[in-house]
Amino acid sequence: MGAQWKAKHKDLAANAKGRLFGKLAKEIMIAARSGADPASNSRLRLVVEQARKVSMPKDTLERAIKKGAGLTGESVHFDHVIYEGFAPHRVPVMVECLTDNVNRTAPEMRVLFRKGQLGASGSVAWDFDHLGMIEAEARQAGADPELAAIEAGAQDFEPGEEGVTVFLTSPADLDLVSRALPAQGFTVLSAKLGYKAKNPIDPASLSAEHLEEVEAFLAAIDANDDVQHVFVGLAG
């Protein structure tokens, strides 16, 4: 949770599938500005691979690429905005948005943060590292993530959920490491830039009631259409 918060309950995850496709479509459109061919556009290639992993419909994917590359005649503009602050009980949060209307998103974020605290730029970012985050799974039992991290040029690695390993890189090395991991026996599931808390709060320090309030706050933030990723300073 210290890297990127994800809904824990399967029913929430299922209901969020449409929102996930919408978020990925935005990232695809932005990446496609630099070219519609994933083979020569590394950023687009990574997002397209992620979209395929979650079974985004082919026509939705192709439409987003064409729209972003300007092949449909439609203009596409999104602002990248990060909101910083605290969830209830002083849990630090960074919210990454892609919006076509900041004047709509800003007041929506202020309302959502009423149960926490919205901070100024830099108020929370100092306590997070900006990193490349690659989720990958071993193709065979016994694959050594430490050796793979060293050989692929990752800075570090940590175990993720359901046998997935998260490889951490400098932002500049994200694509390089993503390309190198398959040769080390790992299949890349997703690759993105994100924020990892330097001093995450131990969930055990919060009561069950307080933890539930934090989860409800994060779920409400994540449900906003302009929100791409939510990064939380909570361990585990």
Give a description of the structure:
This protein is α+β, with helices and mostly antiparallel strands and 236 residues long. The protein has 8 helices and 8 strands. The chain has a 4-stranded antiparallel sheet with strand order 3-1-2-8. Strands 5-6-4-7 form a 4-stranded antiparallel sheet. Strand 5 and strand 6 form a beta hairpin. Helix 2 packs antiparallel against helix 3. The radius of gyration is 18 Å and the shape is globular. The chain starts with 9 loop residues before the first helix and ends with a strand. The mean pLDDT is 89.
Write the layout of secondary structure elements.
Blueprint: H1 10-15, H2 17-31, H3 42-53, H4 58-68, E1 79-87, E2 91-99, H5 102-112, E3 117-119, E4 128-138, H6 145-152, E5 156-159, E6 164-169, H7 174-180, E7 186-197, H8 208-222, E8 227-232
Antiparallel strand pairs: 1-2, 1-3, 2-8, 4-6, 4-7, 5-6
Helix pairs in contact: 2-3, 2-4
Family: Belongs to the TACO1 family.
Organism: Variovorax ginsengisoli
Keywords: Cytoplasm, DNA-binding, Transcription, Transcription regulation
